[in-house]
User: What shape does this take?
Amino acid sequence: MGLARTDMDGDDLFSLTAALAWISNQPSSAPRAEHLFRIIASGILTNQAGSDFRAE
Assistant: This one.
């Protein structure tokens, strides 16, 4: 577990969750849903173990 970023609110979290749910229902993106979730979670949680996502 981690602490959520202080610059986001419930509306932001809901929007990100809805976007991830939509993406996971798209045939071309469904196989990557877990990977995309980890990327989103690492952007939301500030001290999550393994949150070493780096933009390339």
